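Review form for a predicted model. The reviewer records the input and the model, then writes brief findings.
Reviewer: anonymous (R2)
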Amino acid sequence: MSLIKSEKTEKSVYTLEFSVDKDTFEKAVSNAYRKQVGKISVPGFRKGKAPRSVIEKMYGKGFFYEDAINEVLPDAFDAALKESALDMVGQPEFDVVSIDDNGVVMSAKVAVKPDVKIEGYLGIEAEKAVAEVSDEEVDSEINTIREHNSREIEITDDTASVMGDVCTIDYEGFVDGVAFEGGKGDAYPLKLGSGNFIPGFEEQVAGHKIGEAFDVNVTFPEEYHAKELAGKAAVFKTVIHGIKHIELPELDDDFAKDVSEFDTMAEYRADITAKITKRHEDEADRKFEDAILDKLIEKLEAEIPEQMYVAETENFVRDYDNRLRMQGLDLKTYFQYTGMNLDTLREQFRPQAEKQVKLRLALEKIAELEKIEATEEDIEAEITRIAEAYKMEADQVRSMVPTDSIAQDMKVKKAMDLVKEKAIAK
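Model under review:
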């Protein structure tokens, strides 16, 4: 087995031509014959007893070639790839060039990591804007906690319902005097003001008392999901069976003590403001980093082969499948629920995959240019992190993930930290 030639045929793609000698291929053909002869029926011979020459005469000399090639290909390609010294990425594409008395010649289309050029990666400028915290944001967060601490008071007299109450209702809808499918409900608990029903419905329930029957007149939105009802006027025959009034706690110091570790409402409000401020700052940091990395990718110069994008897209698909399985689902079930298929999922992940490939190449080049190295301490810390994240022993991680791969990941991480550290916020 030997490499015949290696030549660049397109951007970051080489074609390797390599051979398998006659004796090696003949042995593989004999192995294929022995494996298959028991399944082949030949007139005049008991099943499994027909000579190879007879089978080849009946079905053709190349009858066993496919299995023989599959046997010799892995070792032959590995040897050729090693001899070529190419840094392969993605999956190769194979072809048979020739088969004759001297053996077999095959070719492999191999994508390789491209040559990368990048400049100006330190001192990248990007906008960083931290949104101010408004009183409305603070009020909204406090009101959410307030609602969680509310209590329901059952109305037993003839008090009319008001917005914010929970009304237990029966209803049935009619369009042009005819009841429509899905328009009926019994003992439905409707919170007035929740926006769960058609616009205008809940407002018309307000003001009515327990036991009262009344009509609610509404018009379905033009974009309503049931096309046969979109834009149609409807009447809902409605009866109220129960009303619960939602009583909210007063926003005073007692409320602050009940829902937090603070003694006063002023302290509690200040803490909520500080937490929202931190969220805004974190969001600004995230957007700033995203902008930096986008600008870094723009500085990348490389002829990236399609195979790298394909391989990374498949990585995204596998990761997504694993996450689904952790939730008790799988891709087949997910596709049934969503109407998607494998091709549409790949299409969905493709932009992320392209960005990830470009970013990785850029950071690997920066690590090279900046002579960034991963120390033993870096590698051990990463092994510990992985072991803790996946609830494994450190030795298990070492046996599953090559140290060289971990070291490369750590160099890439350090390169990213360097780019972020040197970036300039505008």
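Findings: The two ends are 60 Å apart (CA to CA).
Further findings: The chain has 13 helices and 13 strands.
Recommendation: see findings above.
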